[in-house]
Design brief:
With about 120 residues, the protein is α+β, with helices and mostly antiparallel strands. The protein has one domain. It has three helices and six strands. The strands form two sheets. The chain has a four-stranded antiparallel sheet with strand order 3-4-5-6, covered by helices on one side.
Length: about 120
């Protein structure tokens, strides 16, 4: 059931290319929060990304066929196929500070007790 919802959200998000959003899981619930973080556009070259955003914090080795490479920046990661951007995703909670607080109404994970928590044994 959760998989169908997630797939529907991802397909709906892909259909609306003008909207930029990120998914956040809070208490096992998938929520979509707007993100205003500037990220590379799909189809940009590695050279264009480096020119616009500077050198990445880290570059991961290329793997697979076709070759897939990931560059990590502060707050987002860029995934390339060969030398073209195929995706850029927000990776840091720092990006949420710039976004509207869509998920801030939900309780923090530390506020909620796990459902399987048992009382501590007494000595």
């Amino acid at each position: 059931m959760h998989t169908r919802i997630l797939v529907a959200l991802l397909c709906g998000g892909a259909a609306i290319s003008a909207a930029v959003a990120e998914t956040v899981v809070v208490n096992d619930q998938v929520q979509v929060a707007d993100s205003q973080m500037n990220r590379p556009k799909r189809g940009s070259t590695m050279g264009q990304v480096e020119k616009q955003f500077g050198a990445p914090v880290s570059r991961h080795p290329t793997v697979g066929k076709p070759p897939i490479t990931r560059w990590d920046y502060s707050g987002f990661s860029v995934v390339f196929e060969r030398d073209r951007v195929i995706d850029a995703v927000v990776t840091s909670g720092d990006a949420m500070a710039a976004a509207p607080a869509a998920a801030s109404d939900a309780p923090a994970a530390s506020d909620a007790a796990p459902a399987s928590a048992a009382p501590a044994p007494q000595q």
